[in-house]
Amino acid sequence: MSRIAVSKLPIDPGPAAWNELLPDAPRPQSVEGHLTADWIVIGAGFTGLAAARRLSQLCPSDRISVLEARRVAEGPAGRNSGFMIDLPHDLASADYGGAREKDRALTADNRHAIAFAAEMAREFGLGEDVFSQSGKINGAATAKGHAHNCEYAAHLASMDEASEMLDAQSMKDLTGTDYYRSGLYTAGTAMIQPAAYVRGVAQGLSSNRVQIFENSPVTGLIRDGDWTATTPAGKVTAPKVILAVNGHLNSFGFLKNHLMHVFTYASMTRPLSAAEMARLGGQRVWGITPADPMGTTVRRISSPEGDRIIVRNRFTFDPSMEVDQRRIARVARDHDRAFCARFPMLADVDMQYRWGGRLCLSRNNVSVVRELDEGLFAACCQNGLGTTRGTLAGILAAELATNTKSDRLDRMLADAEPTKLPPRSITKYGANGYLRVQELKAGREL
């Protein structure tokens, strides 16, 4: 017998702004009483939904229960910046790149995940406003950032990957601001409205075989032959379980002191008026990641009530997986500075939403896709790329659990375990000090 008591449930600071933009979701279905299934998937973000989709393909007659602690899209899946990136994007690297051959395999795996997501988007009728493979731009505001872009472009060329360098005028024509001195465009990224995407996928998957249970946090797991997941109002029993809970793998008792829990933060403006959009100029939809990984990500999104701008920056290391509203308020000042520096013509535009989102990283930049116990599988630790790497992890965990072979799964299983961290007190202060120094070094890229 195996018995797991869950030590912590998800806590997310601020509203999931992308979800706030959508109409109210239908009334949720929660676990009530004692249910049975063939599979339990814990977590209904990018990873859990991808796992459920892949299981439904591999085991078309099986019953799959997906248990989500909150409403779909209220957690990290509704809080990210919406870049589903195909190319190397190592946040610990100065220019995102790593070893060439490893990055080639990584890119192929990422594209497999994006194609999987694109197929779901097409099947479930999600429009271009929800999922669009329109590419992205690494924006450089400094000579150092431009040098990073040049190095990254050379690395991509060595991988036989195309990119296009944009000059300052091209960046202004795109964004309406003269803040950027250059940009590096790559075509393979999918830009998504993350909350609309996961809600659409959850709705599309729902059937008499795949049930999505919301407001059903798992508080314990017991294996006595089959696994039983306990929630506040009921239980679900099944032979196999996939944990798609990212950093909350620690809360289920696994890999303690091996996972780094990091928050990043974002703010979204109110809708711009027609006069403000005219004053800004530029195109109405675009997405920019910073040339320096510690810099500011910026998106402009279009909507009938007026366009909005999102800025994302700052990272903090928080082993407790919790931050309070005071942190959000402090980081908000950095967001406002970054916004005003880029868009001085919009100085009177307020932020309507501010929030934080949880990331899980490992020191050696590996994910956790493996069997943890008999019939219990993990698809966790996405290293800051939950949209793409989370989708891939969900696919591969389903394949591992069904003994479905693939080169992608072999590569994932060949990775080492996440490297053990130093003692918690040292890690917390050391990591936060390191992050802050790197942010300061980013200069105008932040």
What distinguishing features does this structure have?
single chain, 446 residues, alpha/beta, eight-stranded mixed β-sheet, six-stranded mixed β-sheet, 11 helices, 22 strands, 32% helix, 25% strand
Overview of this protein structure:
The chain is α/β, with parallel strands linked by helices. Helices cover 32% and strands 25% of the residues. It contains eleven helices and 22 strands. The strands form four sheets. An eight-stranded mixed β-sheet has the order 8-9-7-17-18-19-16-20. The chain has a six-stranded mixed β-sheet with strand order 11-4-3-15-22-21, covered by helices on one side. α2 links the parallel β3 (39-42) and β4. α2 packs parallel to α6 (194-205), α2 (46-58) packs parallel to α9 (388-401) and α3 crosses α9. It is globular and about 65 Å long. The termini are far apart. The mean pLDDT is 95.
